[in-house]
Amino acid sequence: MNGDKRLIVALDVHSMEKVQQLVEQLGDSVNYYKVGMELFYSVGSQVITYLRQQTKDIFLDLKLHDIPNTVGQGLASLTELGANMLNVHASGGFTMMQTAAKAVKNKAEQMNICPPKLIAVTVLTSMNQEEWSTLGFDSELSGQVVHLAKLAQKAGLDGVVASPQEAAQIRVACGNDFIIVTPGIRPSGAAINDQSRIATPAGALLNGANHLVIGRPITGVSDPRQAAEDILKEMRDYSHE
């Protein structure tokens, strides 16, 4: 079976041994992996090298958020690693995102490679309306997510990370060519853990998501491959409806 690249498995572990174990267990069922802070800060770029050797696609999820020049320089360096997708925080602002997009494009041109996709995190899926309000915002959380998505698109980014609950609104606002990556995916019966704005795989696809990021429901069970294949079946069944 060739893995459906709409599914991105989150490698939320902290050792190369665990990475290799999971990748071997999942085999050709999964061809796209997310490397986040926990793993990258623990083992560094060797995980990117390993996944590329296994011919896997990589979403390097480091959520850069700093002044424009710093983010641009950081992304230029990350582009050299060869990941397929990188991200920043949309709340860093229009200028930061625009600088980031230009930095990735320029570095890719210098290297004569296809640039990685650059997407923006809108509002973390662990946050709900109540917590959003404690930050001093009077706006509806969902409205802010759509606003940030439109800002990211205007800045030249390829897409956003957003909860499946806002995906449909983003799809309408930003069109069919805009990438929507949705964490907070929980198959029926799975534990919610620290996510607040969640959906099932079929629900996220129905709302317009391009990629589903799923971690613990796959990596935290006794048979990760079977869990992945069950989710992939749900995704295929939705696609054929």
Give an overview in words.
With 241 residues, the protein is α/β, with parallel strands linked by helices. It has a single domain, classed as TIM Barrel. It is 47% helix and 16% strand. The protein has an 8-stranded parallel beta barrel with strand order 1-2-3-4-5-6-7-8, surrounded by 6 helices. Strand 7, helix 9 and strand 8 form a beta-alpha-beta unit.
What is the count of helical runs? 11
What structural class do the secondary elements suggest? alpha/beta
Overall form: globular
Rounded to the nearest angstrom, the distance between the terminal CA atoms is: 21 Å
What labels describe this entry?
single chain; 241 residues; alpha/beta; TIM Barrel; 11 helices
The gist of it:
The protein has 241 residues and is an alpha/beta fold. It has a single domain (7-239), classed as TIM Barrel (Alpha-Beta Barrel). Helices cover 47% and strands 16% of the residues.
